[in-house]
Amino acid sequence: MELWPGACTALLLLVLLLLSTLWFYSPCAKYFFKMAFYNGWILFLAILANPVCAVRGRNVENMKILRLLLLHIKYLYGIRVEVRGAQHFPPTQPYVVVSNHQSSLDLLGMMEVLPDRCVPIAKRELLWAVSAGLACWLAGVIFID
Ligand SMILES: CCCCCCCCCCCCCCCC(=O)OC[C@@H](O)COP(=O)(O)O
C-alpha cells in the first residue's frame, strides 16, 4: 500500500514529461494544448460571468461584461490587435456588420470592436456549449439553425 504515493508521483512526473516533450517538439500538439486552454479558459470565465449576467436576465448589456472578461486573452497568447478604420465604427444609422469568420479565435478580434448593443448571431449548437452557451444566451446572442 505504501508504494502507491510513490507510484502516483512517478506516473504524474511521467505524464508531465510526456506533455512537455510534446509541447517543445510537436507544433501540432502545442497548437492543440493552446486551443484546449483557450476553450477551457473561456468556459471558466463564463462560469464567473453567468451569475453576474443572470442578475439582469437575458439582456444585450451583458455583452459588456463578456467583453471585459475576454479582452485580456490576447495578452496570454501574445497577440497584438491592430484596428484600422475605427473612425467609421459604429455608424450613426442602423447597421448590420458582416464579418469573416474562420474559428473560435475570431472571438478575440470581435471583442475588440463589437459596438455596444450590437448583437452577434451564432449557430444554434453554441447554445449547448455549457457555460459559454449560457453566457451567450444571457448576452442576447441570436441563435440560428
Ligand atoms: C466570458 C465568457 C464568454 C463566453 C463567450 C461569449 C461569446 C459572445 C459572442 C458570441 C459570438 C459567436 C459567433 C459564432 C459564430 C458562429 O456561429 O459560427 C458558425 C460557424 O463557425 C460555422 O460553423 P460550422 O457550420 O460548424 O462550420
TrEMBL record:
Membrane-crossing residue ranges in chain numbering: 40-57, 126-144
Mind telling me which CDD domains this protein's record contains?
LPLAT_AGPAT-like (cd07989)
Q: Does the keyword Oxidoreductase apply?
A: no
**Database matches in InterPro entries:** Plipid/glycerol_acylTrfase
* GO MF annotation list: 1-acylglycerol-3-phosphate O-acyltransferase activity
Pfam families, per database record: Acyltransferase
Query: Which keywords does the record carry?
Result: Acyltransferase, Membrane, Transferase, Transmembrane, Transmembrane helix
Q: In which pathway does it act?
A: Phospholipid metabolism; CDP-diacylglycerol biosynthesis; CDP-diacylglycerol from sn-glycerol 3-phosphate: step 2/3
Tell me which Gene Ontology terms the entry assigns under biological process: phosphatidic acid biosynthetic process
Gene Ontology cellular component annotations, sorted alphabetically: endoplasmic reticulum
Descriptive protein name? 1-acylglycerol-3-phosphate O-acyltransferase
